[in-house]
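Good day; I would like, with your permission, to put a structural problem before you. The record follows directly beneath this note:
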Amino acid sequence: MMMLLALVVLTAAREPNPPPADWPIHGLIQNEDCTNFFYYRRFGEGVDGGAMVDRYVDTLADAGVRVLMINTNARRTNYRSRVWDAF
């Protein structure tokens, strides 16, 4: 499976036709899962959540990310539940 994935990545890296100059998005695109950022950070009293998000966005921008997309449906579960809404 890993060999197949590596082959796909290498094939995509040698794309013969780059996107046109007027293509609307250039650079890296970061697609975050709904729990990647928000689950592992502790927001609460005395924590400046806005500054925490700003630092994270600045870190990604410094790494070259031009577009950040975050799924905000973290309140839903990945399993069936009588208590919580599931996907």
